[in-house]
Structures are given as C-alpha cells and as structure tokens.
Amino acid sequence: MVSIARKNLFEDIPRFLVAQAGIMFAVSLVTIQTGILNGFTRSTVLLIENSTADLWMAAREMENLELTQPIPAERVTQAQQVEGVARAEALAIQSGRWISPSGDIASVRIIGYDPAGQLFRLWNVTQGSQADIRQPYSLIVDEANLKSLGFDQVGEQANIGAAPARLVGLTKGTQSIASSAFVFTSLENTKAYATAGLTSTVRCRTQAQGGVDCTTVYERLQASPNQAAPNAPAISEPQPLNANDPIAYVLVKAEAGQDVTNLQRRLNDQFPNNHTYTRAEMANITRDYWQRRTGIGFVLGLGATVGIIVGVVIVGQILYSSVSDNIKEFGTLKAMGASDWIIYRVIIEQALWMAILGYIPSIGLCLGLGTWTFATQGIMILITPISAAGIFAITVGMCVGSAIFAIQKVTHVDPAIVFKA
Amino acid sequence: MTASQIKVNMLAKAAHHPTSASSGAFESSDLKSPKTKAIVTKGVEMVFQSGSQRFHALSSVDLDIYSGDVQLLMGPSGSGKTTLLSILGGILTPTKGSVQILDREITDLSRSELSRFRLHNIGFIFQEFNLFSALTAAENVELVLKLKGFKQRAARKEARELLEQVGLGQKINNKPHDLSGGQKQRVAIARALAGSPQLIMADEPTAALDSQSGHEVIALLRQLAKEGGRTVLMVTHDPRIIDVADRVAYLEDGKLKR
C-alpha cells in the first residue's frame, strides 16, 4: 500500500521538524533521566561488581556498601580457615576529613585494601600503579575528583585529618555519584588515617546471637576540628592491622568447584554475629538502598515519568492535529470502503515513523551528552543496549499510545462528511 | 483525449431526457430494450435527531435506477439529495425502508459488510475532489486498487492506464496541488473507476470547476460510463448536465417530485 502515513508526515517539512523536535525533547528527557538513574545505581555498586570475591562477609547491620558497622580484622584469618574458602581478604571503608593543598575541606571515603591481594583490585588505573599505595600515606583517586580534592597532578600532597595524603596515581570511572570522593589506599594507610591524632580504646559488644565482638575505637582528642590537640599522638609509620582493628568486609573467594551457596551457609553458621552475602546480593542490597530508601531513585524515576507524560502529550497533540488536518482524507478512505483497521494502521504507522525518527537523533544526542558529562563531570549517564532498547519500546509505546487519541477522532468520523464541501 | 474530442463524444451519445414514473417508482421512459435495475429503493425515510428536534430529511422515497444509465438527482439546496446519495452509496443507513443495490439488500448489512460492499461495487467522485494531497495522481489511484487487493505492480500499471484514459498520462507523478481543478476531478474519476466498480456516485462533480472543465468532466463521465456499461448516479445543480443524462429525479423537501 502507498504509505499515506509516511507521505502525510513528510508533506509539510517545517511542521514535521517541529513535531520531531517535540518528540526528541521527550525522548531525550526520558533517556537522560533513566541514564542518570542507571549511571547512579551502577556507580554505587562499582566497587562490588569489580571485585572478584564470591562472598562478602559484613556486620549484620549492613545497610549498603558504605553504611555498615565495623567487624574485627581477625575475621579474615578466621574465614580463611573455613572449609571451602580459597582466599579471604579485608576491605576497610572509613570516612575522612580532607584538607586540600589550598586548605579547603571536604568529606572523603577512604577505601583500604591489600594492593597485593586478588579479590579487590582497582581497574582503569590511568596513572601510577596500585603497588604505590603501599608507601605510607599514599593514595589513588579518580580523575573526576582531582579538581574537587584540590589536586592538579600526581605527586601533590594534601591531608586527611592530621595525616599527610600524597597522590600517587589516578583511576577513571571508579567513583560513586552518591558518595563523597573515594580515596584508595592500603589497609595500613587506612588504619593510619583512622588513628592519626587519635587515641584508641577497645570496645566490646555482646551480640544478640551470643558471644562478644571487640573492635578498636579511635577518638579525637582535640577541641578544634582543624587543629590537632596538643596531647595527640604524633603521626607515625602506618602499622599492619591487628586482630581487633575495624574493617568493613571480609572478601571471600571459594575454592574451585566449591558450591558458593553451601559455603555462604557455612560462613553464616560459623559466624552468627556477621552475615555473608553473595556478590549479587551485596550489589542488590546497595542498589536497592539507593533506589528505594533514599529519595534519589524516586526523583530520577519521577523525572523519567514526567518525560513520558510530556512525550505522550506532545505526540498525541501532533497526531491529533495531523489527523484533524486530514480528517476528510480519512473520511474519504472510509467512504471508499476502507475498514477502520486500515485507517488505524495508517495512524499507527505515522506514530511509528514519528517514534523511529524521533528516537534515533535523541539517542545519538544523549550518547554524546553522556560521553561529555562523564569526561568533564565524572557523572555517568548510562545508556546500555538494554536501556536503549527499553527506551525505544517506551518511545514506540508513547507514540502508539498517543495515536489512540487520534484514532478516537477517526473512529467517530461520519463518512458522509465527504459529501460536504 | 482533448476537450474537443470529449465534446464530440458527448454529443454523439445524445442523451435521453428525464421523464415520468411508473409502478410507483420513478424511472425514465426508455424506448430501448428493457434494462435491469441497478438500484431499487422502497419507502426510504431518513430522520435526523438533534436533541428533541427531529428532522425528516427523506420521506417515502421510491426510486429505480437502471444499469448503464447516467441518472441525475436534482433539487434545491436542503432537498435531501446528498442524504439520498449517501444512503444509495451505502454510507448512511436509512431510518426506514429498503435499498437494493445490485440485487443486494444493503440495509441488512453490517458496518464492515457495507464497507466491503462499497469498496468492490461503488466508485465515488466528490465535489471537492477529496484527493490525498500528499500522494501523486498515480498513488491516489493505486491506493484504491491496493485496498481492493491488487498487487503493487498490477496496481501501478492499472493506475497508469486509468490516468491515461482520463487524459492525464503526462501528470501521473504530479501531486494534487500541481493540478488544475479539472485535472484533479479527472484524477478523482480515474480513482472512482479503479477496479471497475459497477456504480459510480458523484456529488456535484462540476460545482468546483469552470465551465469548460465542467463540460469536459461530464463528457468524460458519460463516455466512461457508457463504454464501461456502468451506472452513474450524479447529484447536481448544474443544468448543463441534464443534456447528457439518461434520467433525472427531482427531490424537494425530502420527497421525489413526479
């Protein structure tokens, strides 16, 4: 059949372009909002998904990757002795107060790991080497945070609390949008940053499931946040973790051929005061926390929903106006004997063309925008093939759904209008 | 085909004049061999209701239209001509009465059956042409052929032949806005003839045309009707057309006048 839909669409090019601009706006709005939502949730689980650990042992109170109670470092050696465990490594997460070279302060999240380990490795190291963080008070940051931390280049020095912080390397694409800037360093340095200028006490808790868990708690002895107290201990060489030092997670690799679920059960049985999660569970808990328990997921989801509603209104209005302009032609088709379905097909085809021709430039625009924001702002607008396909389906649904308004108009058209001049 | 050729053809085919009624239904006096009836209406009434107001558009219309005839439907504005044409074209269903078209009672047909019936048996020509502005002349004709089930290649060939037949062989790729009023109406005629329907229904086909174009279009309609053995039913105010008609029915206040 001659494509009346396509021909009608292209007959008035200026009007077609205005219509497509409206659809592009709606599609871009949906794409960017969902891209930011996806990029945001992906960024919150980057550290989890890039680890090679099969299991993550944490405090039972763990809410998300960065919000958990400390567990004693001795859990690493204890876990190592469980049958079926090939390897166990510590991962420490601490908060710190960053003092930039120019004196500006910011919150940072100190991620401590074993640079010689296998279960947590930095990826996309663009400058320096992971081995460099073994040096005292050395760290690696994401390129996206370079400016906000007051650095210009590798080799510069700032402070975390009272301790020095020397930049020895850079990564790319390792930062969570939801968090303070990550600084990656060794477990020893993490402990040193946690204890610099502080005094320590051992605090023990009786667990609900029985037993006592003791961790070392470090407390500041200073009145002013920027000035070390006169009686605070001097900055010393970072020391290895002792059994009671706090860590956040024990990363566990199962032996080859070991059933991970069985190992998870054994670890849970053996350490009733902790809970062991699979990597997927850990990622889901963290993702779910940010999406559902904070307003961020709702706000971004609302933005995407508004985009869809705006799209339906725009496309609906365009199609309705197009059908109104051609109502006599549709009446003529009906009078000549075309079934209602043939006319619906014309309108739906028109909607599909609008969807396709609005979608392609929009997705191209958003991919370009995503690349730019990631390169310049470190904000990921994540458009995966699946989300791109999903947005295409939404665009088609939006356009075809809007066509229903237009179809209503044609359904009620009296074919006798063709005889009216 | 030129305008003068059409005129010669028209004159050569010497039209019959409108005449009387018989057996209760209006029909022309026909001195030739008896013809079959293409359309038979009995007691057709059409009432439109708007709120509490009821308007009788047609009352007790009995009309016989014969195969191969050019039948005119005339009368003043508001007399019910277009309503009757819509009913005879299967577009409107009468409030009461019987309408037999090509031996088929169309008042019993469902909406979709009526659509199919119109598609395969009736070609329409409209006062304002009602061509698809985004389509070329050939595509306008092809569209109907495709609706009737023609394959693309066959539809294209048939459309080209029909447009050549109405004298627009050189304009097949022109869109309606590139054609004159007379040329547009010829495209509409070619479209109405697409798929060879037995009935052609035309609503004021010359109203939007100048005198010369009007003559050409009428001559063409008559020629194509007679050559193809089709029945042509035309609503018109145009007195020039009476000369080319086989029969004329007058409608006034929704009633046929004897």
SSE layout and pairing:
The complex is a heterodimer of chains A (421) and B (258).
Chain A lengths: L3 H8 L1 H32 L1 H4 L5 E5 L11 E2 L1 H7 L4 E15 L5 E9 L11 E3 L10 E5 L14 E4 L2 E9 L9 E6 H9 L2 E9 L5 E9 L25 E2 L1 E6 L5 H11 L3 E5 H15 L1 H31 L1 H10 L3 H38 L7 H27 L10
Parallel strand pairs in A: 4-9, 6-8
Antiparallel strand pairs in A: 1-13, 1-14, 2-12, 3-4, 3-7, 3-13, 5-8, 6-9, 7-8, 10-11
Helix pairs in contact in A: 1-10, 2-7, 2-8, 2-10, 2-11, 7-8, 8-11, 10-11
Chain B lengths: L2 H10 L8 E2 L2 E2 L10 E14 L2 E14 L3 E5 L6 H8 L7 E6 L2 E2 L5 H11 E4 L11 H11 L4 H14 L15 H13 L5 E5 L7 H18 L2 E5 L11 E6 L2 E3 L1
Parallel strand pairs in B: 5-10, 5-11, 8-9, 9-10
Antiparallel strand pairs in B: 1-2, 3-4, 3-6, 6-7, 11-12
Helix pairs in contact in B: 1-7, 4-5, 4-6, 5-6, 6-7
List descriptors:
heterodimer, A: about 425 residues, alpha+beta, 2 domains, six-stranded mixed barrel, two-stranded antiparallel ribbon, about 20% strand, B: about 260 residues, alpha/beta, Rossmann fold, six-stranded mixed β-sheet, four-stranded antiparallel β-sheet, about 35% helix, globular
Q: How many domain units of chain B? A: 1
The largest sheet of chain A is: 6 strands, mixed, barrel
Which structural category fits the helices and strands of chain A?
alpha+beta
Record field, number of beta strands of chain A: 14
Regarding quaternary structure, what we see is heterodimer
Q: What is the element string of chain A, with H for helices and E for strands?
A: HHHEEHEEEEEEEHEEEEHEHHHHH
- Envelope shape of chain A: elongated
Distance between the termini of chain A: 28 Å
